[in-house]
Amino acid sequence: MQQSLLPERASIIEEGAHQHLRAGLLGLVALDEQHVITERWGDLVSWVTPGEELSAGVPFLAGYEEIFSTSLASEKPCLILSRVRWVDPARGELPVFSVYAYKRVHEPGVILVIQDVSDAAEFDQKILQERNETVLAQGVLRETQRQADAANRAKSAFLANISHELRTPLNVIIGNAEILSGQNSKLMPATDLDAYANDIHDSGVALLELVNDLLDVAKAEAGYLELIEEKIFPADLLNDVFRLAQKLPAARGINFVIEEATPDTLLQCDPRRVKQIVLNLLSNAVKFTPADQTIKLRSWTQNDGAFAIEVSDTGVGIPADEIADLTAPFVQAANTDGSKEGTGLGLHLVKTFVELHDGSVEIKSEVARGTTVTVHFPPWRVA
User: What is the average pLDDT across 353-361?
Assistant: First the structure.
């Protein structure tokens, strides 16, 4: 027991202090009425010098003299500090202490019972750290669950949308094929036959594009999507895609504007993927831009040498809380009437193709004001 290490003079401490003389109690300091150190016992306070004032001998207790004085009028121990650490330049960092004050029995003053509680403090710190780690892990788990739930909802919505996207062109193909194969088709004018055939062709192209999008997503997730690169003049490619977008059925009545890049600018890229990027952006803009509104396509070389392609519209816009999720697979922007077709793969593929080029995608939008999507290709791809 620690008590056996103390001299007989420790018997001056009242019974309450004796209850603390057990394993872990490593030091006693006696003060007189003027808070001058008169005696000390125990290895823990071997650095305390009798005759010094409290602030000099036990500096981490300076300022507690008034509390010590109150213990003179009490028979109960007065807990001063439950956790205190003192860093002494000469001795380095000392243990963590707890301090009790008792009235001296045979002479005026107080006895300070100083106990090493380093292990308890370390344990408390470990418990706090584990608690913080648990809270953090719970937060990560909740976010993971939220993302999983969002992905499940998006996939469910995707399955509902994809069934529509498949049935619509298939119905056109099957219906028109039945008409053309019927007996009455022989009596139809050539213009009607051409119209039915063109509808079958257009529906087949739409189905092929849908299948290609699904295959691209699957390849990207499996890490098999690769670029076939060459140097191109992006101005020529953008003009071609711009004309295609103007021919989309939903583009009627929309004002289209193009600001071309410098004609002699060269871009190292996969032209097929860049074409998909721009066409997907223009198609999305067409879906959410009413007639008499404007869609603008522009491109330019930025001050840092990067090449930017931007599609902006004055359409319905996107709520701020939806923008971050738009590039996730199967996610579509909300619309009020449910009439907007699509699989929710367009912006996800845009982000995938751009990142394969070591670029980035920036989306800005405001409800009822429109949306701007900017694609940035790194400077080393520009010549």
Answer: 97
**pLDDT confidence band for 258 (50 / 70 / 90):** very high
| 3-state SS, residue 33 | coil
Domain count, the chain: 3
pLDDT above 50: residue 192: yes
Quote the CA–CA distance of 333 and 157 in Å, as a whole number: 12
Instruction: State whether 325 and 235 are in the same domain.
Output: yes
Give the range of the structural domain holding residue 166, as residue numbers without chain letter: 141-222
The whole-angstrom separation of Cα 60 and Cα 9 is 25
The DSSP bridge pattern shows strands 110-116 and 92-103 to be antiparallel
Q: Is residue 44 part of a domain?
A: yes
Task: Give 79's strand partners.
Answer: 100
Tell me how far apart the alpha carbons of residues 178 and 172 are, in angstroms, rounded to a whole number: 10
Q: What is the mean pLDDT of residues 76-91?
A: 66
Query: Per residue in 2-57, pLDDT tens?
Result: 343 444 444 444 444 444 444 445 688 888 888 888 888 776 777 788 888 887 77
What span, in angstroms and rounded, lies between the C-alpha atoms of 261 and 283?
21
In terms of C-beta distances under 8 Å and separation of at least 24 residues, what long-range contacts does 349-354 make, across chains too? Answer: 349/213, 349/216, 349/217, 349/220, 349/276, 349/277, 349/280, 350/276, 350/277, 350/280, 350/281, 350/375, 351/327, 352/216, 352/217, 352/220, 352/225, 353/270, 353/273, 353/274, 353/276, 353/277, 354/277
In a domain, 125, yes or no: no
Residues 238 and 375 in one domain: yes
Classify residue 18: in a domain, yes or no.
yes
DSSP state of 269: E
Which range has the top average pLDDT, 12-16, 131-135, 295-299? 295-299
What CATH number has the domain bearing residue 186? 1.10.287.130
pLDDT band for position 86 (50/70/90)?
Answer: low
Query: Domain check: are 311 and 368 in the same one?
Result: yes
Q: Which of 222, 246, 281 is the last residue of a domain?
A: 222
Mean pLDDT is lowest, of 64-68, 92-96, 165-169, 355-359, for: 92-96
